[in-house]
Amino acid sequence: MTEETPGFEEQPDVPSEAAQTPDDVAKGAGSADKAGPGAPAGDLEQVAIQAQLDQVRTALNERTADLQRLQAEYQNYRRRVERDRVQVKEVAVANLLSELLPVLDDIGRAREHGELVGGFKSVAESLETVAAKLGLQQFGKEGEPFDPLVHEALMHSYAPDVTETTCVQILQPGYRIGERTIRPARVAVAEPQPGASPKGPGEGDGTAPDEESGGPEEG
After folding, report:
1. I need a surface site. Which of 13, 110, 129, 137 has the fewest CB within 10 A?
2. Helix H segments across 38-163?
3. Where is the composition biased (Acidic residues) (predicted)?
4. Which one is the CATH code of 136-195: 2.30.42.10, 2.30.22.10, 1.10.10.10, 1.20.1050.10?
């Protein structure tokens, strides 16, 4: 019979930590993360990343709105500058041509009296051409209705052959540049005769309207 050594019992084989491979350690750690508090930490990280993305999107939208506003302000500024530039140019041209109006009046009077001849005629016509290129337009004609916005009445009379206040003589022509009047036309006007009424049928042509016969009937 085999003798048993007293005080010793047979133990099952248990692998020691030294006997575990690195792969076994990694697998164990991964299992611990999945099963333990690692899952909530991952969710918190995702929430934090989403919050950062939302902040970036908000900041991007704000910067985009700022850029659009600046672009609109710049376009408005350019339009104002262009409008002011055009207005300054128009005012400068109008001031220059206003100083030339007396010369143009002298040229007009010389033409009416037949004195616009020779070299003076060529210079005068060249000056008128340049003024026209700058946009100067002459207005005011006999027979047109009087308009206080563009006419200045210097003489007044009554005439039987007009039905409204009419310019019957142009004493000094008016000038404009585009829609801007730089000098009104100075005119003599005529109004209808006081108390005169428009001519009716048969008046003034030797005919008379038919008269209806009347009177008491003979009995």
Report:
1. 13
2. 38-112, 118-133
3. 1-12, 208-219
4. 2.30.22.10
